[in-house]
Amino acid sequence: MRGWPLIKLLPQKTNFHFVKYSRYAAVLSVVLCIASIVGCFVPGLNMGIDFRGGASMEVSKPAGQTIELDRVREAVNGLNLGDVQVQGIARRDTNVDDGSTAILRFQVPEGRDQTQVVNQVERAISGTVGEVQYSGVSVVGSKVSGELFTSGLLALAVAIGLMFLYIWFRFEPQFGFGAVIGLLHDVVLTFGLIVVFRLEFSLNMVAAILTVIGYSMNDTVVVFDRLRENLRKYKTMPLGEVIDLSLNETLSRTIITGVTAVMVLAALALFGGEALFGFSIALMFGIIVGTYSSIYVGAPIILLWGVKRGALNEEAKPVKLGMASRP
Question: Residues of CATH 1.20.1640.10 domain(s) within the chain?
């Protein structure tokens, strides 16, 4: 605490009336979710190479010489082929990443001959970085890309389903329902961000959304744990007041955790290069929205559903462990 004096700026105790504004927040969330879903179809997601299909090749120089990845990316970007990905890899002969070998992925526009596009890319790279060797040229068809897209969506659905089961067994069905609605809210709005800013939707973006799901669930569990404790402690307090109390008690923890994660991701977006920019932006937005959904999506749904406090008030009886008596 002494090492970071900014923590002292956060009040130790707050008394915000979150439930009072839950209706307005619900209207805002519904409007944004509908707009995000419509945007996924019109104009649609900006599919990357993983889901649209394209070509890949290895670009290498003799051992000891370094390939400038930024210059390779700029050379291919100048051809207006869409999404371009360049990543350094280990050499095949030595299995050591000495900076002399990279893998290049790029889109092949529809209606254009694949061989001509590959030759055009090779000439652009050679004219920019000098003499290099090309190997491992392959083309990913639309069928394989469609299967990857379906698998990515299936992974998101399975993750949300497992989170629902976890919350259901740990708490009660209404808690699980509120958590899942919050997760769906976060995922849909993240898709909306991808559409608005025309970020490349690739496997990296699927990984970012899965990470958002995990972070949002972690924040929701913290709030629900405190809510369950307060429901046992304040048996006669109205449910809305208990929710407000629980949210205020966990607010400082939520702010510190969220701000810390956003600062790390901001540094990653600034210095991680073009390949990690979209990933970082999606994660930052997901963390902010996940914090919002824990306050104004998950908890208000519990208020609408109601809670059977009798079940929550049943404390587990302690088990006495002792040595068996000898006959």
Answer: 9-43+143-314
